[in-house]
């Protein structure tokens, strides 16, 4: 039996299973289902470009903030430094990224896009824009704007929690 405490909090009685019957219809699961669907589409559409969605995220982060270090990038992308190092090595081998010595700290290396990296990012971003336009087209401009605002609000609420 679930006792309704408020819109967002429910209390369980001990005679039930480990989760409420509505566990998969919660807001967090709806967010996760949307994330999985978007991520799968990004992977599918970026694959012909020889790029993974994680690499796109890394490249756009470096483009937006040139000179990031691997540690800063790991924090920004919410992944381990080892995961960033692995992706950086792959992208560097392909000539899309380069490491440069930090101007004041010789042991720190900054990441920068190469010309080939900027070109690859442009192609990948066109794929992402196409996915986003499809979503916005289906929702319509008003609902797309509302969804963006609601997702920003969710991010703010979770950060404050």
UniProtKB/TrEMBL annotation:
<dbReference type="InterPro" id="IPR036388">
    <property type="entry name" value="WH-like_DNA-bd_sf"/>
</dbReference>
<feature type="domain" description="HTH marR-type">
    <location>
        <begin position="24"/>
        <end position="156"/>
    </location>
</feature>
<dbReference type="InterPro" id="IPR011991">
    <property type="entry name" value="ArsR-like_HTH"/>
</dbReference>
<dbReference type="InterPro" id="IPR036390">
    <property type="entry name" value="WH_DNA-bd_sf"/>
</dbReference>
<dbReference type="Pfam" id="PF12802">
    <property type="entry name" value="MarR_2"/>
</dbReference>
<protein>
    <submittedName>
        <fullName>MarR family transcriptional regulator</fullName>
    </submittedName>
</protein>
<dbReference type="InterPro" id="IPR039422">
    <property type="entry name" value="MarR/SlyA-like"/>
</dbReference>
<dbReference type="InterPro" id="IPR000835">
    <property type="entry name" value="HTH_MarR-typ"/>
</dbReference>
